[in-house]
User: Fold these one by one.
Assistant:
Number 1:
Amino acid sequence: MSIKIGLLGFGTVASGMPFLLKENKDKITAASGTKLEIAKVLVKDDDEKKRLLAAGNDFNFVTNVDDILSDDNIAIVVELMGRIEPAKTFITKALEAGKHVVSANKDLIAMHGKELIRLAQDKGVAFYYEAAVAGGIPILRTLANSLTSDKVTRILGVLNGTSNFMMTKMVDEGWTYEAALKKAQELGYAESDPTNDVEGIDAAYKAVILSQFGFGMTIDFDQVVHQGISSITPDDVAMAQQLGYVIKLVGSVEETPSGIFAEVSPTFLPKSHPLASVNDVMNAVFVESIGIGESMYYGPGAGQKPTATSVVADVIRIARRIKDGNVGKRFNEFIRETKIAHPDDVKSHYYFAINTADEKGKMLCLAEIFNSEDISFEQVLQQKANGEQARVVIITHSVSKSQLVNVTEKLQAVADFKLLNTFKVLGE
Amino acid sequence: MSIKIGLLGFGTVASGMPFLLKENKDKITAASGTKLEIAKVLVKDDDEKKRLLAAGNDFNFVTNVDDILSDDNIAIVVELMGRIEPAKTFITKALEAGKHVVSANKDLIAMHGKELIRLAQDKGVAFYYEAAVAGGIPILRTLANSLTSDKVTRILGVLNGTSNFMMTKMVDEGWTYEAALKKAQELGYAESDPTNDVEGIDAAYKAVILSQFGFGMTIDFDQVVHQGISSITPDDVAMAQQLGYVIKLVGSVEETPSGIFAEVSPTFLPKSHPLASVNDVMNAVFVESIGIGESMYYGPGAGQKPTATSVVADVIRIARRIKDGNVGKRFNEFIRETKIAHPDDVKSHYYFAINTADEKGKMLCLAEIFNSEDISFEQVLQQKANGEQARVVIITHSVSKSQLVNVTEKLQAVADFKLLNTFKVLGE
């Protein structure tokens, strides 16, 4: 007997699946307890190019999703189309038809995961999506299976390969944001509209999913604050280096006394921090917890084979659970009431870059503003900027989100100061 | 209903278990599907000190293992005594009594795992040991559950915290081996007899277990070649740095066309390699595979809470499988016929440090010896050593174990050359 799979989509990742299933057949069959077989592949057009890609395989291309949904021989549907629609409709129909579903669609799961998970539960079928976060890194299953004994206090992740590639160029080679983006587009890492990658939206989708597995709470996408890398200047990068830091786009989810807080933002990482040496398109998830303490999971965040490997691991797990008779289990069984942190409880060190007239008394005035919000300095650097301007760079001690809002408003209200940038700083 | 646990030993790790079970009670109970309860703890002497440690807990100390083995209410036995005996006898008896067993005992599992695993299978009980490799890092479960879809080609690991702490001092601060060892002993990282840690024996135990999970093959401990860090000199460290490398004690298991090969040896890692920045007592396992490509799992390799976290994760998994009715499953289900690699197939770049009389023709003679074994140079550095001696440092291109043996013999046969050290070099 074999378990038959219906593939929705035959793009980069999907076309990597036949490779893995063939190349690693014995191990996969043994682990599944049965043969896995791709039976049908949904494509828009059943054209020559796809036939070439599929050469040597036994599956059929279909152009109507019903050919898969109504096929009683297909037990598992793998959705690799991306975007919200028609993926959402197809997954919904597949779950309704009693099929188990594997997806790598982070946008969809972050935006509509709740209802799809509920539907899967109602139907007693599996809905797994390891590949949706950090592609090849098995972070979701690790959080669900191994860190069950532990209590996670914070997750920090370099979750977007495109922006990390760009930040690596900006940090290691002093490139501007614009030059780094151009290179990323030339190499096919960034799309012509790079918004999702560079503005932290893609990483925010992943933070939503990580909050479920790490903290048992389902935060909404809209509740994830996100700030991208487009405002980072070579001056910021140089300042970071001088002060002992590397800037990266970091997604973070943490639990405070009042609840969890998730955000994606450029972050100053101490050079010795394990995330600081995660370069190029690689991803990593750094977990802080009361038991293990600090652990990190590093690997490719995207790409055909890494993503297909995670997808096939999900398929194997479903096949095995079908055999073991416990396939209805949720991918993530850790569920608590969702509570969002109060801004007073969310604290971090911060970097402020401020331009000011190079006149007597400006530093005093600046110190007074920070002091009025009870914010103290950890490092201060004043440099001659161009002309009559001086640049002041401040790394603060711990500051709450409430304090941050207040001090930012006060700084913006003083005409003499120009607040260039504010970024999070990870304390040592 | 609750599941009752019998603890064998109440040392550092064991006394961390009540903390985790209490601190993380809700999550652990939900994941287990039942309450977990330590019922009895086996100790040598039921003394006052232990009573203090155990204050506030409900379990009883016992001094006779039979009080646990014959207690039908105890379903899971957790062995945290270490060493071979009496741990082996106790685990054997526990399995024979139909109890599930969790152990963190790498020595025992590396030396006698095969028979214990077989016994567990015969009895239809679970025998799990996540904590035996790299303490807090969930590497075994990750290999068993997530990399099932992948084919591992090589595993490289910084697997021993004590020696890595020492290497970090030797590399970052230029300490001698002796100074680093003294410090490690002062801090309690190294025992008064540090052999197991510094000679690569402890790491070799872990390589045995990793070979099972990564490659499905059970290599014997005696088949793991191990070389320690005691022969590494400040000169070697300085040379490595000059050539772009960091030296660490690395355990490696790789598959060649003829079979697998495992060894533990000081290894030159390119500075940009993710393992190169794993410092102090931290461990990491770097996995190369056909699907994911490169992934790394980083965390504490020892310590009370990290190790207890891995142990409790195993206990949760067993509790859950008892509930799901599939508790007899092996921890590692990936099994192939064990084949050991032929020395011709095991290849690496190498570092040679050689002293020679500072006379004409010596470099020519050296080049002829390497050339006679078909070994070519990647980097060569000649320096004035003390007095009439010159030091030659060579990084070779790929060399097989057979070539390595031959060239070493030839070098040792020439009275003019003194072969100071030979270490593996990881190619970029």
Number 2:
Amino acid sequence: MRISRIQTSDGTVTHAFAEGDSWVPCGDPYEAFAHGEEPTRQGEPIADATLLAPAEPRIVVGIAQNGPEHPSPVQAWLKSPRTVVPSGTPVELRRNVGKVVIEGEVCVVIGRDALDVPVEDAHTVILGLTAVNDISNPERGSVDPRNFEGKGGVGYTPLGPWIETSADLAGAELEVRINGERTVLTGSHELPAGVAECVAYVTSWVPLGPGDIIMTGAPKSAFPAEPGDLVEITVAGVPLVTPCV
Amino acid sequence: MRISRIQTSDGTVTHAFAEGDSWVPCGDPYEAFAHGEEPTRQGEPIADATLLAPAEPRIVVGIAQNGPEHPSPVQAWLKSPRTVVPSGTPVELRRNVGKVVIEGEVCVVIGRDALDVPVEDAHTVILGLTAVNDISNPERGSVDPRNFEGKGGVGYTPLGPWIETSADLAGAELEVRINGERTVLTGSHELPAGVAECVAYVTSWVPLGPGDIIMTGAPKSAFPAEPGDLVEITVAGVPLVTPCV
């Protein structure tokens, strides 16, 4: 099932699920998830809905040291949830603070309160997967060891456009295209710490809740970007577009 | 003016301002602040209100390297907003991950959207000051350079109980007492980067908004704590209590 948040032509914001090419307004998907159910239909299909960011995280966790070039174990950091923007939003790359890097990542959307979740139970707290672009100015790292300055730019976390609830957590495909050319085809199977391990690690230290997201790290999926580039990141069929300006 | 969030005996949650020993339900203080006004009275004074955390931050910023023992310039990091709890909440100190440190800090509550705010204009985006206890397990720092593991414990950010809107930003007094004994009397004047400088630094990198908070760092105000300790932190007259369990 595809779940997102939409804004209708009269300005109403609601959760919705996909039905063909339309979106059907629905009840709170997190409440339904907590009861092991699918969200309830609450209106007629809408053909021309505007898709918002599919989640409103209170917490955005980034996983560090989770590429094939890094040694285990993983680490983590927090990114500002105010940086989250919908797919299609033009993002202004910060100038004069070193190069800009885009990172296509498999993004976990947490479905319910989660603390100390064992690896084997991780799937029970995951609503689904979506695509995220973890944009940053990594050269700030030399003076900013806590990933604050280089990660907080306006619009630096494009997310969505929807959550795929039936994605294969261990085998979610991740593709990055820049200006139409594929730069990498990889997936969650290439992460040293997989989706379930990331959930277990994060929740062993920090409580998460409905709508929070974990950016699982970059399996060779980080690339420099320039103004004018069009970045397309697809995760488990979820197609995220970021026009860089 | 003292502003907080209260829960009344029928369960209603609302903003409120202090009038003597009572709390008067009021309109949104951030909307009023944006118009240069005080929040409007919306009910009768309540004598037995339960005080909640006075703000619901989307972003909790910690300032690092801002004690007299640190060299400038300051740095920053993000703490999970899910760690925020009201004054009086018993906080379970995490066992088996090294010592626990409490840090009494002057806490800035942001009143409106703020980006690239010059030092001289910082007061125009600050709703007021409150007290915060930045609890952590600092020994995790050796394996956790981004302040993730050691800062995310349940209840690790006691806040409040109210926001003082008329506090002296440059001269806010900060007192820490542990089990009734004063361990330090200091204030924002002892911070190498003061309140206004912290706001300017943070907003030069990361957009903030209404209710977000900045913990300005520890001017000699960090101390080890043990289960059973009662920690009292007073900032500009705002008295925060943390029973450690």
